[in-house]
Specification:
Length: 307
């Protein structure tokens, strides 16, 4: 029996139903099942729950995540009066079973992935969060408050209530996943060098058209230039200078497509004074000259619905 579920950061969450349930005798007499995941959060316990052959006793603040079509019911007819919130939801892609003892730590938890922070890296890198099957969150009162909001949204069903409900569910699952991470790993703080790296990336993203000297970088980040170079290469896999060149060409590509500005004017705007140097760099990174690139984009056939 899996005790956790690995869920993609980009998963589409669709809330189907949500409510507050008070345990009565019928809870132990009838089998329940549905084609969706179902998250339960106990507001007043105990709640005696049987999921397939697994029997558990849940107390106030406990959560339990049921799989699609998993049969469940109460197993103690004498225990009545408990209450729990429940929400049924679909997730695409569907969460998969995960065991910390056997499975490899998912992407996003092993170590920071520096290239994902670079503006010039187009490839999307999915990340995974681990959601527990049974858990008691340290922020259970906040979690129950979110559940109350979710049920209210579904009951009132006004405006973009499904969108708001999906956001609330995502926040709840993230809260559970973050608390679980704190339980299974003693240290979840990102390295100080990675924080410096992100500050450096942000600075480069905003100031690449200007002259970024070593003195400028040291003054703004309060770190030695050699350290900054080492940190950037470690996480980005390229040098600071190479990234700045990629940023300039990336901006130039947009300007060649969206404006009628001359190549010389575009070169100056992205921080390269000499048009010849700019054209040489552009061809090296893009594979064609700025003029050829502009002509190719302009002459590219459009689909009928693109105007």
């Amino acid at each position: 029996m899996a005790i956790h579920y690995a869920m993609s950061r980009s998963a589409f969450l669709d809330v189907k139903w949500a409510a507050l349930h008070t345990v009565r005798e019928s809870f132990s007499l009838e089998q329940h099942y549905n084609p969706y995941f179902e998250l339960i959060a106990v507001t007043e316990g105990p709640v005696h729950l049987q999921a397939e052959e697994e029997k558990v006793v849940l107390h106030a603040g406990d959560t339990f995540l049921l799989r699609p079509w998993e049969r469940h019911k109460g197993w103690n007819p004498a225990a009545q009066g408990g209450e729990f919130y429940w929400v049924q939801f679909a997730a695409t892609p569907e969460p998969r079973p995960f065991d910390f003892a056997k499975d490899r730590l998912p992407v996003g938890l092993e170590a920071p992935h520096g290239p994902s922070d670079l503006r010039t890296v187009p490839a999307y890198r999915d990340e995974t969060m681990i959601v527990p099957r049974r858990f008691r969150s340290s922020g259970r009162f906040h979690l129950l408050g979110l559940f109350e909001q979710l049920v209210r949204e579904m009951d009132e069903a006004k405006g973009y209530y499904r969108y708001r409900s999906s956001l609330l569910l995502g926040t709840m699952l993230e809260r559970l996943a973050s608390d679980l991470l704190g339980h299974v790993r003693q240290e979840t703080t990102l390295p100080a060098s990675y924080v410096t790296y992100r500050s450096l990336v942000s600075l480069l993203d905003n100031q690449y058209p200007s002259s970024l000297t070593r003195e400028t970088l040291e003054a703004q980040l309060d770190r030695k230039y050699e350290y900054l170079c080492g940190v950037f290469k470690k996480y980005a896999g390229m040098t600071i200078g190479a990234y700045v060149r990629h940023l300039r060409v990336q901006r130039a590509q947009y300007l060649l497509q969206a404006t009628e500005d001359s190549v010389q004017s575009i070169a100056a705007e992205v921080g390269i004074a000499d048009p010849f140097t700019f054209s040489k760099l552009f061809k090296k990174l893009v594979g064609r000259s700025p003029a050829d690139y502009r002509n190719e984009i302009r002459n590219k056939p459009r689909c009928p619905d693109e105007g």
